[in-house]
Each structure stands twice: as structure tokens, then as C-alpha cells.
Amino acid sequence: MIHTPLCDLLGIQYPILQGGMAWIADASLAAAVSNAGGLGIISAMNADEEWLRTEIRKAKAMTDRPFGVNIMLKSPFAEKVAHVVAEEKIPVVTTGAGDPSRYMELWNKAGIRVLPVVASTAVARHVERSGAAAVIAEGGESGGHVGDLTTMVLVPQICDCVSIPVIAAGGIADGRGAAAAFMLGAVGVQVGTRFLSAYECTVHQNYKKRILKAKDISTVITGKRLGHPVRCLKNAFSREFLAKEYDPAVSNEELEQMGVGALRLAAREGDEKMGCFMAGQAAALVKKEQSAQEIISEIFEEAEQILREGTKWVR
Ligand code: TUI
Questions:
Q1: Whole-angstrom distance between the N-terminal and C-terminal Cα of the chain?
Q2: What distance in angstroms lies between residue 307's CA and the mean position of ligand 1's atoms?
């Protein structure tokens, strides 16, 4: 059994959080992950407060275990959904794509443990001072909006600069990745891409098929020019986006416009040409469809065995 301080902090059996994947991480996936002993997460993405409230209520009907909500801070509804999580007494909030400090007082007063996703030591130190309960150090191997540093170098540096627990994210899809994260000093992992293949994940079947077919060099980063780089699978959309990104005749506005709705097209419509299939580099490690329960048990059985054998080269 692997038990870390994160299990006690969040009231979970396995020290694993499910990534807050926009247009994908709904009540179905969140409840399945929580029922399997991890912390399921509903993504508030760019949706309004009513959508989120409905999804939270659905998840509450599907599980008695704790689950969280991910708030994407660039969302036009961030302020509104920040109040919904407090009203609904959600125990854990993860945040992405920005600095959550302005909501920290509201959430801490509501008894919410705030776990910001950070991609640098400066932001990690800042959110610790603002009242974060733990921090999710996300390397650029992950899918969606990414920072520059890899998980391998980011996690130990963040462990060195904060006193709150550190959760590793980015590139972790199996027991080897989880074991490595513990060796880097993390007390838990956040996994996104691997859960795309969960039976309980309602993403379009074409998205799952693409993940299962992905190989090592199947992802690419788009949007650097716009200041929010996004890792996604290579397809007609990403090729066209990159061609425009490197064309000085194309304005930033036109480029931004091209991205609008592309994730929804991929996740809900399964549009293999014009959809943006956000995925981490670990997509290549995802081999089959499984239940959330199978995914979590497999990751931790493998990690436990690796950690037990971890001293085999030590003389
Ligand atoms: O947020 C994510 N992943 C995401 S958000 C998303 S939706 C979106 N789509 C297009 C553009 C922007 C968002 C899809 N995937 N991961 C967590 C994450 N947070 N990665 C990087 C950061 C981050 C970046 C800067 C966290 C804090 C931060 O602070 C600096 C600042 O400028 O506030």
C-alpha cells in the first residue's frame, strides 16, 4: 500500500488526482475516480455557474467520496464559479492558467483546500504565501496549457522552495511515472491523459482512439506566439495552426479565433480534422480502455513494486 500525507489531507485512499480536463472532466469521470479511491475533478472550464452546479449535483449523486473542481482562471466565468464551489461546499479546488490569490480568502473561509497548478518556483512560492494547502507542479509534458520546464526538473525545485505538499503532474501515466514522482519529492500525482481512456470518460470515441494510437512524437505545442502554449496531438488543425503561427501576415486575433471552439469540436464532436486534441506526451503510454478503478490499481501496484525494488542497485 502506498499512503502519503496527501491521502490524509484530502481524505483519499490513493495519492492521485485526476487532471481537470476542459470539455472532458465531467461528473461521470470525477465520480468514477473518486469511487476508485483517487480524487476526481470536475473541470469548470469556460462554462457558466449553472452548468457547474448541475455537474456538481450529478457527481454528488454518484459518489459519497470527496471530489474537487478545477477552475481555469482565464475563464470569463471564473468569478462566478469561484462562488459556486464555496456554496456547494466542494472540499478541494485546483486552479490552472493563472494566479488564484484573489479567491484564496473566499475559498479558505469556506473550508476549501486550494491546490493551484504551477509551472514555476516563483508562482509556487507566491501561492504558498497566499494560503494554498498544497501545490501541483506541472511539467510541460502535460496536455493543454503548458509551462516551459519538464516535470523532472520542476518537481524537485518546487519541493525545495515550499513547505506545503507537492503533487507532480505532466508525463505521468503509469506506475513508473508515479514512483519517479515520489523519488523527486512529490507526495502525490495528478494524471490527466491516462484517464481519457477510462470507460467512464465521456469524451468522444474518436478522441480515445487517437490517444490509443498516439506514439512518442505524436504531440506538438501550438500557441507560443499568443503567450499560452497548448500541447495537443498532431493533426490537420495543429498543422494549420502552426503554419499560421509562423506566418507574420496572420494577426494574433485571427490566430486566437482559430482556436475558439476547437477543443469542444475534438472532445464532443470527435472532429479529427479541425478539432484540437489536447493531450500530454504520455499519450503514447496509454494502451487500452479500462475502468478508472483498473487504471488506479494498476498504477499503484506497479509503483509499489518499483519502489520496493528501488534499492536493488545500492551496494
Ligand atoms: O491550465 C492548465 N491546462 C489547461 S487550461 C486549458 S484551457 C485554455 N486553453 C487555451 C488557452 C488557455 C487556457 C487547457 N489546458 N494547466 C495548468 C497550468 N497552469 N499550466 C500552466 C499554468 C500556469 C501558468 C501561469 C499557472 C500559473 C501561472 O501563473 C503565472 C501568471 O501569469 O499568472
A1: 26
A2: 32
Model pTM score: 0.98
- Ligand 1, CB within 6 Å, residue ranges: 22, 72, 74, 96-99, 117-119, 123, 138, 144-147, 228, 230, 278
CA distances from 149 to 139, 141, 215, 303, 304 (A): 6, 9, 21, 24, 27
136: left (phi over 0), alpha (psi -120 to 50) or beta: beta
d(CA 315, CA 311): 8
Q: Which atom of ligand 1 is nearest to the CA of 259?
A: 10
Question: Where do the domains of the chain lie, and which CATH numbers do they carry?
Answer: 5-202+286-308 (3.20.20.70), 219-278 (no CATH)
| pLDDT, one tens digit for every residue, the chain (315 residues) | 999 999 999 999 999 999 999 999 999 999 999 999 999 999 999 999 999 999 999 999 999 999 999 999 999 999 999 999 999 999 999 999 999 999 999 999 999 999 999 999 999 999 999 999 999 999 999 999 999 999 999 999 999 999 999 999 999 999 999 999 999 999 999 999 999 999 999 999 999 999 999 999 999 999 999 999 999 999 999 999 999 999 999 999 999 999 999 999 999 999 999 999 999 999 999 999 999 999 999 999 999 999 999 999 999
